[in-house]
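From the pipeline queue, job 12 of 40. The input is one protein chain; the requested action is below.

Action: predict structure.
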Amino acid sequence: MRLTKTLNNNVAVAQDDEGREFVVIGLGIGYVELGGEIPEDKIERVFTSVEQQSQLHQLVNAIPQRYFDLAREIVDYAQSTLGVRLADSIYIALTDHVAYVHERARKGLLPKNSLTWEISQYYRREFGVGKKAIELLDDELDGIEGTLGDAEAASIALHLINAEQEGAGSRQGIDGLRLMDQVMQIIRYQAHLAYSEGDLDYQRLAVHVRFFVQRVLGGEQTQVPSALSKMVRESYPEAYSVAERVRAFVEGKLERSIGDEEITYLIIHIARLLNRA
């Protein structure tokens, strides 16, 4: 690819050998000589979507470069920490969000996040990245030091969650998060579970419910031998009863069936908590 236009130090327009144009992102990519070939190891992302290219052009024209730089740093840290490749859209969404947060924080108008608790509990790793992002923003942006808290960490985490799911071919976002919370509420109520933040078995259950919801929303089903499924149902009748409540709720809400195989592991996680009492 050859550089045809510099948008900022780390964002440029490039053209391939067939004359197609792309927006590319990479550290110091804007310093490549106009018309010169861009070293492959400098290219971090290539935006082929016309819509995303247009959005990047608009952001470059409207937002100072330091917002791009901070968003890039957060994305790099998130991908390294979470061990995933986030969808390209995260660069646009997070850059715009950082600019928005800076402006609102300077005016003392930061919004609350009604999903802070759910994100902090069910997406602990993403929330941890959000907390680290708060430190970066506090250090680099004037006028907001000490004003950002867990609500903002959760907002950044939600952008990461959406980018993770989009990169995996799924768009669950807030709907998935709310369904997870509803499922966990049913389990806590039906099984009479007392929540404890440091409870490892409870955390394992929450992680399982997270992936259970992702599979259900994505139209997937886990595979379990029918003999094992039958044995689990018969061995843990109380946990099976709770899991059936979950199945009835989710099937009614989504208007789709959930097989016995999918319920099997849910029963095992619930039983682990019930059998400790």
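Job complete. Residues 2 and 37 are 4 Å apart (CA to CA).
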